[in-house]
Amino acid sequence: MLAFAEALAEGDGAVLYAARAAVERLNREYGGGFYLFTRPRVFDGESWTGRERKRGAITELARLLCGMDSELETTGERAALSGTRYILTLDSDTRVYPGAIQELIGAMLHPLCKPRVDEKRGVVTAGHAVIHPRMGTELYSANSTDFALIFAGAGGSDPYGGVCGELYMDAFDSGGFAGKGIIDARAFIRCAASRFPAGRVLSHDALEGACLRGAFMGDVEFSDAFPSRPLAYYKRLHRWIRGDWQNARWVFCRDFAPIDRWRLFGSLRRSLIAPM
Can you tell me the mean pLDDT for 126-141? Predict the structure, then answer.
């Protein structure tokens, strides 16, 4: 996510014009189905950026899909989005393997996964409103430098790894959320859209997994790039640990299931292992 010194950067107009023209051309050639969503920058105290960054973008898209007011400007046939149920979240360096998205959608459509929301507590109590796949390391990044070669692991797709379980999911039917996966838009609006304080939650995916009763799907795999240099690696780790400690107060949130509160505590415990 880029941060800007002003609400409007030089060249914004030309970039948006080109992007909108490209989307409109695709819709003419292929009969629709392509969209561009943009939103204005706001000042967050340090820079001009999208409101609440990734969490804000997901919230505004969920609001749009649910027929609510949204700050997103849409290029494409907005009415055709009516009835859309799911949002797939990815990072710019995430690789999706063939068939993975269909598998995630199929899992969300399964009757046992249909989320049931406790309106009073604002949490999903049965089914799952989030399902995330197993994450691997992109092959090219795992071999990009000596550092990555040593620390990233083998890299690439591992179809046999799908037989491996995940303790929380296997034992407690609760798999959390790791930021990349499929989200039920309506359950997100009801449980997570306005629940957390603005500007104070970095690792929002962990909290979203707790209130949306996230699930882990081990036989579906995405892959991410691995940092090529130690400095980039430790910057990422520092960001993750900052987010974990920002979530410390939610360890005591009685609306969350005990296993989700334990998972949040486990992240804090792991962050202390290295200094201890």
Answer: 93
Which token pair is 127? 């089914």
**pLDDT digit string, tens, across residues 218-271:** 889 999 999 999 999 999 999 999 999 999 999 999 999 999 999 999 999 999
Helix (H) or strand (E) holding 186: helix 185-191
Cβ atoms of 1 and 52 closer than 8 Å? no
How many Cβ atoms sit within 10 Å of the Cβ of residue 1?
8
Q: What amino acid is encoded at 121 in this protein?
A: R
DSSP state letters, 11-48? THHHHHHHHHHHHHHHHHHHTS---EEE--EEE-SSSE
Identify the burial level of 206 via C-beta atoms within 10 angstroms of its C-beta, where 0-12 means exposed, 13-18 middle and 19 or more buried.
Answer: buried
With contact defined as beta carbons under 8 Å apart, do 206 and 177 qualify?
yes
Both tokens of 180, joined, read 């990349």
Q: Provide the whole-model pTM.
A: 0.91
